[in-house]
Design brief:
Largest sheet: 6 strands, mixed
Strand content: 5-15%
Order of helices and strands: EEHEHHEEHEEHHEHEHHHH
Number of domains: 2
Number of helices: 11
CATH architecture of the largest domain: Alpha-Beta Complex
Distance between the termini: 23 Å
Helix content: 40-55%
Length: about 270
Amino acid sequence: MSTCRTLLVDRPRTGITVATLNRPDQLNALTFAMFDDLAQLAAEIAADDGARVLVLTGAGRGFCAGLDLADAATLPDMPAARFLEGQERWSRAITSLRRLPKPVIAAVNGPAAGAGFSLALAADNRIAAPAARFNAAFIKIGLTGGDCGSSWMLPRIVGLGHAYEILLTGRLVEADEAARIGLVNRVVPAGDLLASALETAGLIAANSPLGVRLTKQVVQANVDAPSLEAAVELENRNQTLAAGTDDMVEAFTAFREKRPAAFTGC
């Protein structure tokens, strides 16, 4: 798996990949090039059968402070067509993690602002350290509160009322409030953050690859399902597909034999 200077990739446990944004002196602010690195990371994880869960975190004190100030300073001088091309590329990088068929866990160790906020939202599970804080910084610099998918993802995580307030004000949401409104799943001591994320990743990776993949897909599809009937119809198809796999036979066999299942993805 590729590694670049600003994005460190490691596999500390079987099936679990940890990607660390590595610009600690800049609170891991994203350069234009780093968006391409994130898109490449998503493509590599998607293509790697051995990668079951992705954990995303930041080096040092920050998770991701948003767009790097030097790159942000060039935005007002960009022709509209060039800005749009860039915006489309940057948003694709973030949403590629949302669309990844494998679960993504964000271990938010510090500030997640602007595009960094959207990056955290793109994860399927967010675990925060007490120093984590979130804000839609774009509204504070004359842009809109919706960026890199935030206007779609945030309401589905915290509800419309909280989403409107966060996106319209750009105010900071501290870790304890984030947990209270469901923006993060839980807050753990800073020293336990990565271990907690790895524990959750391990619980996911212990399940069958197809079962995990279809579960992520069915939740993402059914959050916008037009009816209960439509949601159940998709569930029924997924269950029928999974029931025909060797992994389901293995799961039942392992349960009867009181041992961990050895899934093959078949």
